[in-house]
Amino acid sequence: MKKAVILLSGGLDSATCLYWAKQQGYDCHCLLFDYGQKHKKEIYQAIKVAQSAKCSYQIIKISLPWKGSSLLDNKLSIRQATNSQLLSTNIPSTYVPARNTIFLSFALSYAETIKAVAVVIGANALDYSGYPDCRPAYFRAAQKLFNLATKAGVEGKNIKILTPLVNKTKAEIIKLGTRLKVPYKLTWSCYRGGAKVCGTCDSCILRAKGFKEAEIIDEASVKL
User: Fold this and answer.
1) I need a labelling partner for 133 at 20 to 30 A (CA). Which of 101, 113, 141, 146 fits?
2) What are the structural domains, with CATH classification, of the chain?
């Protein structure tokens, strides 16, 4: 069976990617990153998602001591977002400098080692917060690097970057995941790691908007 490395964050997008990859026939190996984020709840939920899918997972612990994001630095607050801010072209404080590039580098190394043919990432360029490393142009450039930077690529066995959600709205993603029976009740999207979701950060607002437009009940919110 062909192998794929799944970047699994614990959120609904990456969980949908995992179940999509399984449906496509991949033997999925999940990478979870502990990169110094303010809370670990998303990691705990990612573990539950991987276990629910009966897939192997590894937690990679790395340090970004220079911070540079409100997800990492206690001195920076996470904004209470508005719809106008979400539509803005300004990059929010929750952007982590070069995060996807860092994650993809680890995933590429892992994929080449286990002879995986693909790396799957749940990036989205429509309903998102304006991160530059979630755009199709970024992944096209990253794919060229994947092809050039590896023994597998030199030998003509390119490891593909798969972004099945990149051009979908959040509602479309949720509808797809519902068809795939993704356990959304296990996922965590909130940038804050409280007992309950805050409901006001970018990620919470986008998630709520997606479920509303999809006309599907968010079981994660219901259980709270």
Assistant:
1) 113
2) 3-222 (3.40.50.620)
**CA–CA gap between residue 204 and residue 72 (Å, rounded):** 18
Distance CA 132, CA 149 (A): 22
Taking only the tens place, the pLDDT of each residue in 80-108 is 766 545 555 678 899 999 999 999 999 99
Nearest CA among 179, 218, 207, 196 for reference residue 81: 207
pLDDT in tens, 19-76: 999 999 999 999 999 999 999 999 999 999 999 999 999 999 999 999 999 999 999 9
* Residue 96 near residue 72, CB atoms below 8 Å: yes
Regarding beta strands 56-61 and 118-120, do their DSSP bridges make them parallel or antiparallel, or are they unpaired?
Answer: unpaired
| N- to C-terminal Cα separation, the chain | 39
> Listing from the earlier edge strand, what are the strands of the sheet with 27-34?
56-61, 27-34, 3-7, 118-120, 160-162
Output the CA–CA distances (angstroms, integers) from residue 143 to 27, 61, 91, in the order listed: 21, 25, 24
- Give the separation between CA 141 and CA 150, rounded to whole angstroms: 15
Give the Cα separation of 145 and 98 in Å (integer).
15
Helix 99-114 / helix 136-149 crossing angle, nearest 10 deg: 40
Alpha helices for the chain (secondary structure H) = 12-23, 41-52, 83-86, 99-114, 136-149, 151-154, 170-179, 202-214, 219-222
